[in-house]
Amino acid sequence: MRKAFAALAIMGMTAGVAPPAQAQSPAPAPTSAASFPAWAYPWVPDFKVAPADDVPRHVPDSDQSFTIAQERNLFFVPDWHPEDHPPMPDVVAHGRMPDVRACGSCHRAAGTGGPENASLAGLPAAYIIQQIEDYKSGARKFAGPQRSPSVVMTAIAKASNEDEIKSAAAYFASLKPKANIKVIETDTVPVTQIARVFYMQVKDGGTEPIGERIIETPVDAVQFEHRDTRSQFIAYVPKGSIARGEALAKTGGAGVTTPCITCHGPDLRGVAAIPGIAGRSPSYLVRQLYDFQQHARAGTAGAQMLPVVEKLSHDDMMSLAAYAASLTP
């Protein structure tokens, strides 16, 4: 376990972990379906990071090298695989000081994002633009704790101009979403720790009951912290979740909800300006369902989604997210 934390402490990224004395606090305990889903909003704000260094780092299948100092710079994007995407517009690659961080620094050069935020690859440009406008106006807020991805995203949106928003939206909409999440149904999961805003497995930490939660972790936490767009993830979900989610998505569950396929398409890959939800982070999806239900997302999408989510239990949300995440994007 010490080796795992040491590797991330040396990196000290924006999604880094506390040193062992602080980071050994366990992940949130399994929650009741009737309570706030704290597991979906991982947040350890008082983490500490090691000083940045200028030692070149590498990731698999890339001839590029970047330092931790570069990777921490939110006005710079470590582009490990430039062959995977077209040239990034300036707002994606560099942003604009002092408030418009480079979009790709958090959402990655190929728009893959991570469990802590959103994958933007392949989302309709009109949808992306509307979400930025909702952040600007305050129509899109957050029901959970004010985690750094939420706070930073709101600040960036408010500081961005029309040309920057349109340029970023067009770029991310042009990208092909990647299948990078393996969904596993299980009764037990590896013991995990919160690495500020996402979960990582504790080496030799054993297992624990999954309870009423989804645990989503990078396969290689250090590779993910390097912002490698080819990072892979595992999402552990309760047994039976995928089948329950499929039934809800296709039938609505006898009045529990509106079938997801009605708007998002039969394969949940989206229709016109309606975003695809297939293959997306289940942690992110649960946060959005809960935010809609709590009226935190009150924009155009919120008005459309509120009748859909108002009767959903947390078990329903987990099942829908598990099913959607298991599909090919």
TrEMBL record:
Task: Give the source's domain of life in one word.
Answer: Bacteria
Molecular functions per Gene Ontology: electron transfer activity; heme binding; metal ion binding
The protein's matches in PROSITE patterns, at most eight in alphabetical order, are given as:
CYTC
Signal peptide (from-to): 1-23
Question: What SUPFAM superfamilies does the annotation carry?
Answer: Cytochrome c
Record flagged with keyword Metal-binding: yes
Pfam family for this entry, one: Cytochrom_C
Q: Which intervals hold domain Cytochrome c?
A: 90-176, 240-328
- Is Zinc a UniProt keyword of this protein? no
The UniProt keywords, alphabetically, are:
Electron transport, Heme, Iron, Metal-binding, Signal, Transport
Protein name as catalogued: Cytochrome c domain-containing protein
Tell me which species this is from: Bradyrhizobium erythrophlei
